[in-house]
TrEMBL record:
<dbReference type="GO" id="GO:0006032">
    <property type="term" value="P:chitin catabolic process"/>
</dbReference>
<keyword id="KW-0119">Carbohydrate metabolism</keyword>
<keyword id="KW-0732">Signal</keyword>
<dbReference type="GO" id="GO:0005975">
    <property type="term" value="P:carbohydrate metabolic process"/>
</dbReference>
<dbReference type="GO" id="GO:0008061">
    <property type="term" value="F:chitin binding"/>
</dbReference>
<dbReference type="Pfam" id="PF00704">
    <property type="entry name" value="Glyco_hydro_18"/>
</dbReference>
<protein>
    <recommendedName>
        <fullName>chitinase</fullName>
        <ecNumber>3.2.1.14</ecNumber>
    </recommendedName>
</protein>
<dbReference type="InterPro" id="IPR001579">
    <property type="entry name" value="Glyco_hydro_18_chit_AS"/>
</dbReference>
<dbReference type="GO" id="GO:0008843">
    <property type="term" value="F:endochitinase activity"/>
</dbReference>
<dbReference type="InterPro" id="IPR011583">
    <property type="entry name" value="Chitinase_II/V-like_cat"/>
</dbReference>
<comment type="similarity">
    <text>Belongs to the glycosyl hydrolase 18 family.</text>
</comment>
<keyword id="KW-0378">Hydrolase</keyword>
<feature type="signal peptide">
    <location>
        <begin position="1"/>
        <end position="28"/>
    </location>
</feature>
<keyword id="KW-0146">Chitin degradation</keyword>
<keyword id="KW-0624">Polysaccharide degradation</keyword>
<dbReference type="InterPro" id="IPR001223">
    <property type="entry name" value="Glyco_hydro18_cat"/>
</dbReference>
<feature type="domain" description="GH18">
    <location>
        <begin position="40"/>
        <end position="432"/>
    </location>
</feature>
Amino acid sequence: MRDNTRRLVAVAATAATLVAAAPGAAQAHDSGHHEYGKKYVKVGYFTQWGIYGRGFPLAKVQNSGAAAGLTHLNYAFGPVTATGECVSADPWADWQTSFSDANSVDGVGDVAGQPLAGNLNQLAELKSKNPKLRVLISLGGWSGSAYFSDAALTDASRKKLVSSCVDLWIKGNLPGLQAGVAGGIFDGVDLDWEWPGSAGNTGNVIRPADKANFTLLAAEFRAQLDKLGRGTRKHYDLTAFLPAAPAKIDAGFEGRKIFKYLDFGTVQGYDFHGSWEQRSNQQSSIFVPRGAPDNPDFSVDNAINAWTAAGAPTSKLVLGLPYYSQGWTGITGGGNGRFATATGPAKGVFADGTEDYKTVKNLPGFKLYRDWRAGNSWLFDGTTFWTYDDPAQMRQKTRYIRGKGLGGAMMWSLDGDDDNASLTKAVTAGLR
């Protein structure tokens, strides 16, 4: 669920187009070395809009203890415009709104006339509290990727896009404010183009040339970030959010080439199935469960194997983990509820069919089921089914990450965790 309304991911491809890679496919191990030394990266997404209805300011990331366990925080999202430039999706949230004492990272509320307010000022405070934390601006997202294809089409358009992104987010030249006021807040760029060469949100521009142009766009970001870094004596990270579906990998990404420019890529490890379907299922299982009705099917291991088969170095693949559930209701027939016909999506607080971990874990009347062999858990009360990851499931996934030689974990998104950051703490404890 990577959108401020609802993300019905385009992984609902037909089984014929999945061509899932078989477990055990050849992997591009590189002696186990990670780009950040021997530390695993732990990337948490913070949503710009979370400060509204969800009431989730960055102060909660700090006060829950989540920030202390992260290596990276991705701020989502900065859209790409029809004119091929980077802009703010919400300047009020980004640098205008003020935070009270209780909602500020440093415990001191904003005052009138200060040079910078909003989430960006809170990010600066978070970095002050956590000096090793790297903050990246995530570009695109499900609803902000419509014009990536146009912006990546030519050398001139790529240079224009990257220059505007670097100027706005990395150099911190915000419209209407003092030049460079937000400089130094962002340590790099996360490319969330969903998806080059294949369908994403309705209305997205898509071209067969997107596959080669994604590589060229990554190369242009790397070149401009490195040029800036030579002056600031700083390395700027470049990462990308990558799909799980082998068909989408093949349509949009030159697996071996793109990692010449990326510090790492985060692989979608969720939304394998969801409430857009009429049958309850897993959304983030490590392996395909026995008895699964779809063949081939999605799983974490199939997604990772597809990327390594495409030439991606294993140590630069970071596994995405969901902090929310997919749910169905109207299930009859008893049993444990899995792979059962449903009448529709389960009721959710912000969108039907999805629910935050912090809410699902407290639902009354549900029985917990686990499939340790597949790496999947769910809740069922006889009628309603929620597939979800709890701390125990996260610990199993960190063991998978370590055993597979991956680069770390990514979490979408931090506002789905409980007040004690139970999921984040389970992940960070498993990836010390």
